[in-house]
Amino acid sequence: MSGTASGRPTRRWSVRARVLLGAALWAIGFFLLSTIVVTLNPRLVPLFAGIHRHAHTAAVLTIICLAAGFALIRAGIARLNAIHPRLLDVRRGTAQRLSGSYPTEVQPLVDDLNALLDHRDQTIRRAIATAGDLAHGLKTPLAILQQEADRAEAAGNVELASTIGDQIDRMRRQVDRHLARGRAAASSATAGARSSVRESTEALARTQARLRGERRLDIRVDVSADHMVRAQREDLDEMLGNLVDNACTWARSRVEIASSIADGAVIITVNDDGRGLPADARKTVLQRGVKADEAAPGSGLGLAIVSDLAELYGGSIALLESALGGLCAEIRLPAA
Fold first, then answer.
1. Pairing of strands 265-272, 327-334
2. Integer Cα distance of 132 and 119 in angstroms
3. DSSP string over 198-223
4. pLDDT tens across 204-232, in order?
5. Is the pLDDT of residue 187 over 90?
6. What are the two backbone dihedrals, phi and then psi, of residue 197, each rounded to the nearest 5 degrees?
7. At a CB cut-off of 8 Å and minimum separation 6, what does 245 contact?
8. CB-based burial label for 6 (10 Å; 0-12, 13-18, 19+)
9. Global pTM value
10. pLDDT tens-digit profile of 123-171?
11. Distance (Å, rounded) from C-alpha 88 to C-alpha 214?
């Protein structure tokens, strides 16, 4: 159903219905035309009288012709119907192009679509390469500035060195944030983006367990191997890495990472048993440059980066009260 200018719905006819109806009308019209021709030309009556004497054979031939015509129509429609599942494969990321051959009326459209997909992939690869070149071009001067700050500190200019170091740290984090956004914007446009939540969370849990071995945190992962999201692995690690790192920083003894699926999205939760956050502060800390605790290291861009990346992939992040008593970070990403 679709709307019209008058607001009344109109019914759309499928290709299958149009072809079958057209074939039926063609057969009826041909039958009526034959009847009219015989009626107007009496000399053809003996011919049809001969057919009448071989009615059985004529009936068999009629059935064969009807069956052959139906088979041809069905085969033609089936080739058109094959486009839809292959388009879904491209959207899901299991295929990069539309494969197979199609009717001559449709093949030019398929070829143009494949050319568009190839051009988009090339554009994305160039964008990612440009982002990498930009990262290298910016980080090298920042490293040189850091060396100069270290020299200033060694020369006794501690206050100057501290100021320069703070600004360098802020610039590095801004570069990382905008590069992450640029990479994610390109990756989210790639139909083949697909990552395993379990692989990412288990790797992050092992890393945090090694980094915080002296605290003996109990980090538990309850994520299904079937849970896949439409995101690049690097971006998924960036998002979950910030959440898991925050949870491990503030947890007293326990961190739980779990996942579930609802409404076509994978919901990943990171719970800790720390002191949590007041309700009025949960939305505030998702803003750029705001930290939950000014005494903690960093520039406060971690959760803002997570929010940016999740939004670029069509997802979202929310901070809730955890059943463990601390904070629950819940991120939703489209399921692959």
1. antiparallel
2. 20
3. HHHHHHHHHHHHHHTGGGT-EEEEE-
4. 999 998 888 788 889 999 999 999 998 88
5. no
6. -65, -40
7. 208, 302
8. exposed
9. 0.55
10. 777 777 777 677 777 777 888 888 888 888 888 888 888 888 888 877 8
11. 49
